[in-house]
Amino acid sequence: xxxxxxxxxxxxxxxxxxxxxxxxxxxxxxxxxxxxxxxxxxxxxxxxxxxxxxxxxxxxxxxxxxxxxxxxxxxxxxxxxxxxxxxxxxxxxxxxxxxxxxxxxxxxxxxxxxxxxxxxxxxxxxxxxxxxxxxxxxxxxxxxxxxxxxxxxxxxxxxxxxxxxxxxxxxxxxxxxxxxxxxxxxxxxxxxxxxxxxxxxxxxxxxxxxxxxxx
Length: 215
Hints:
Blueprint: H1 2-21, E1 65-66, E2 74-76, E3 83-89, E4 96-101, H2 111-119, E5 122-123, E6 135-141, E7 144-155, E8 169-180, E9 185-193, H3 194-199, H4 201-209, E10 212-213
């Protein structure tokens, strides 16, 4: 019996030592935070950091895009450094807004990711996500492949960093366009009451079709 007990103790000691000798898997590393801007809005900064400014001269001249805005739209000072242009779009149902975003070389993300993010700012009348109701199409403008986006419903977007979410706006519509610039995509986003956006649908598309390199 004494021999068996000693053998058992030896086995337990070996198992214990073997367990200590096997390296444990490292804990899962936290996800990396991308500096790229999400879907046509300012990128969310990492804790304790600030949004890097667009390099001086980027998005202008040979690296810019130019377009002709509709004559009935009212040009306004951009409310964010990420906006290259901003327009008030008048309508009897209420004014809409068209903003043009440019985030700097290599920033902004791909067209479909932005289209889906825009659609994610809308919900359908039953409260479900509006992604299923989003429509996209491709057009070619002066050698540029432009993605057009359209979605309607209750608009829950319009947030700015450091503020509370905007009040949901039912019966809203979005027309969007993502155009490739020489060093990054450009984003054109028209939002407003459904009737107002419908009224300016042709004007928005005409502006997009006027796009060309060089601002």
